[in-house]
Amino acid sequence: DYPLLERALFELAWSYKSKGDVATAKQWFQKVADQFPNSPLAAESYFHVGQTEFENAQFESAVKAYSVAATKTASPENSPRQNSMVVSPASILRTNRAEVDQASAAPATM
């Protein structure tokens, strides 16, 4: 076993995300979360999976991933990137649904 595998996979996911390949990044973040479920990186990985789902309008999946991330993060200082998950998954879903409803009601502009 490679002792830094978890970190290496997480950084690989970040590399893909930084390049704009969010689909591949999501796969690697999911792999980190699945293979290292008790790691602080698992919590952040679930957050990024949720973020990708949210950006793709997969709101129910996003809330599930955010919920797992929030559950795995006992407090903000346990996350490698502090305060990245200080938000309620339910509030994200409510906010986004309101934005979608508002956008649907707005007249189309060209």
Written overview of the protein:
This protein has 110 residues and is mostly helical. 69% of the residues lie in helices and 0% in strands. The chain has 5 helices and no strands. Helix 1 (5-19) runs antiparallel to helix 2, helix 2 runs antiparallel to helix 3 and helix 4 runs antiparallel to helix 5 (89-105). The longest helix is centred in the last third of the chain and has 17 residues, at 89-105. The chain is flat, with a radius of gyration of 15 Å.
Which features characterize this protein?
mainly alpha; single chain; about 70% helix
pLDDT under 50 segments (min length 5)? 82-86
Average residue pLDDT: 80
Helix proportion = 55-70%
Tell me the span between the first and last alpha carbons: 56 Å
Write down how many β-strands occur, each being a DSSP E stretch of 2 or more residues.
0
Order of helices and strands: HHHHH
Rg over alpha carbons? 15 Å
Output the number of helix runs: 5
User: Based on helices, strands and strand pairing, what is the structural class?
Assistant: mainly alpha
What sort of overall outline do the alpha carbons produce when their principal axes are compared?
Answer: flat
Give the strand content: under 5%
